[in-house]
């Protein structure tokens, strides 16, 4: 999809499939990969297609250029301050489209890995926090700086507050100060830190490892993980126990247990 916000003829989102891994690359480097409506729509469209594609077993989200994502496209937003309604309709539509993408990521059957090479700010940090796993370059930075311009990052706070301890999230939201990759890992926003020149290779290796597992077990596990996280303890255990029973009755569980006992590699049927 071309970039309607800037008039660029280049697609705002690139996709590359290698084996069972689909890689989506934000491709608005000149606009610091800002989440324009065209980019949000392209992301949602690709995620919808991937959700229905059983040949894809893991997804990587990366970005072209030095910045991972600078959040919403502020030029696109400010262009609507002069609308008859002050921009209300456009802003509501923008937030709804963004929320649709951010909810599609945890709802996706396949695990999603974010690879962050540089700055991830505001809704860009939101995108990172929404992903299942995060690999960051040593120089990556993360922040929710909306408070500095009178615009509290309320929507980025949703996945951020679910990814890191609440007080850590509030400090990021109230100060707007960037944190480095090491601090992001310490609070749980980042899983792994690697040198920039091996970032894509590290992500590909992690994704391939996940894609090599039973797709049935991984997808059931991801779905159960996200569902139980918001439940009271007793309900969470009931949900998880039912998922374990469902998993034990699957062909791949019998194959995996048999392979372990027979000291051989399992042959997954993904069911």
Automatic annotation (TrEMBL):
<keyword id="KW-0276">Fatty acid metabolism</keyword>
<dbReference type="InterPro" id="IPR029045">
    <property type="entry name" value="ClpP/crotonase-like_dom_sf"/>
</dbReference>
<keyword id="KW-0809">Transit peptide</keyword>
<comment type="function">
    <text>May play a role in fatty acid biosynthesis and insulin sensitivity.</text>
</comment>
<protein>
    <recommendedName>
        <fullName>Enoyl-CoA hydratase domain-containing protein 3, mitochondrial</fullName>
    </recommendedName>
</protein>
<keyword id="KW-0456">Lyase</keyword>
<keyword id="KW-0443">Lipid metabolism</keyword>
<dbReference type="Pfam" id="PF00378">
    <property type="entry name" value="ECH_1"/>
</dbReference>
<dbReference type="InterPro" id="IPR014748">
    <property type="entry name" value="Enoyl-CoA_hydra_C"/>
</dbReference>
<comment type="similarity">
    <text>Belongs to the enoyl-CoA hydratase/isomerase family.</text>
</comment>
<dbReference type="GO" id="GO:0004300">
    <property type="term" value="F:enoyl-CoA hydratase activity"/>
</dbReference>
<dbReference type="InterPro" id="IPR052377">
    <property type="entry name" value="Mitochondrial_ECH-domain"/>
</dbReference>
<dbReference type="InterPro" id="IPR001753">
    <property type="entry name" value="Enoyl-CoA_hydra/iso"/>
</dbReference>
